[in-house]
């Protein structure tokens, strides 16, 4: 992978917060708001981030390791760092979308998790990164779900992720971003004031020779037009939520690594194990599920204590720094997944911006391990942290 020289990257940003600021300056306002959206009052997204700040470190000051090992094995794959790209829908903040993100993940030796609501086909994404895990939501009939699995298998997906916690409350106190159903001439005229103030973003698409897409090709049915995001979203909303029997049925039809994403309770974690999960991700869907859910990192310790010796436990939600990653691992996670951060990097500087975000996190992980006096991410434990009383319950 070569020497770690972030200063050689131009334009380089030194934090995820800076990537977010650059994304906000580059993207039309409705597009940027869609990346930071949280349901209702947005308390859970804030708690996802702020909870990490409540945890302290307990560092050593001598005999610090000269070299640190950041590699982990997740879903049967050896990864260079304990950070995966989380599945997020329609990454059309840049013309290359999910393909650019997949290439960046491959360049940094980690996995791409591809949403079934993505804007680019799974075949292209697997071609960009063979370590791609396909994520599905329970949308439409069993036959429709199974067709998606068959397509993912044929494309060479390395594993399957089933997301179970997506209620996606549509009421937001700060006002939901105006995202069009489809892009046509009337829509272009209506959104022109927001887009014309961001000429660099528009120029990227002009150079690519196409308009931003809101279609979701991985949910297309044979012989029918590729649905738009909101058409597919409508199908999902009208699909009865899956039962644990449905989860078991799905697991029987996928013979590879199988993650259930969206676990926050111990009883659900135990059921996930009973129904064949090889991994789970402790997640509140980035705060886009039920507002006032606890931060994912608050739910992590109990889940990891209950099932960490039976399945791989990951976590996603609010990770913005390498030190956040280290805290999650010390509390029982094998790795974390990041969703908004790589999208900000993508919007700010394409594939290089996503690589930049991963480099920032890698550098932060390495620095935290150095300060703690821990040689490997596998050696992290709660003893490396100062966790305040009531942390797990506080919101």
Report the major sheet.
8 strands, parallel
Question: What is the molecular shape?
Answer: globular
> Percent of residues in beta strands?
5-15%
Q: Which blocks of ≥5 consecutive residues have pLDDT under 50?
A: none
The radius of gyration over CA amounts to: 20 Å
The secondary structure category is alpha/beta
Order of helices and strands: HHHEEEEHEHEHEHHHHEHEHEHEHE
CATH topology: TIM Barrel
Keywords: Flavoprotein, FMN, Oxidoreductase
Pfam family, one: FMN_dh
InterPro entries: Aldolase_TIM (IPR013785), Alpha-hydoxy_acid_DH_FMN (IPR012133), FMN-dep_DH (IPR000262), FMN_HAD (IPR037396), MftD (IPR023989)
Family: Belongs to the FMN-dependent alpha-hydroxy acid dehydrogenase family.
Summarize it.
The chain has 395 residues and is an alpha/beta fold.
List the helices and strands and how they pair.
Layout: H1 16-26, H2 29-36, H3 43-54, E1 56-57, E2 72-74, E3 77-79, E4 83-85, H4 97-107, E5 112-115, H5 122-128, E6 132-137, H6 142-155, E7 159-163, H7 185-196, H8 199-208, H9 229-237, H10 244-252, E8 258-263, H11 266-274, E9 279-282, H12 296-307, E10 312-316, H13 322-330, E11 335-338, H14 340-372, E12 385-386
Parallel strand pairs: 4-11, 5-6, 6-7, 7-8, 8-9, 9-10, 10-11
Antiparallel strand pairs: 1-12, 2-3
Helix pairs in contact: 1-14, 4-5, 4-14, 11-12, 13-14
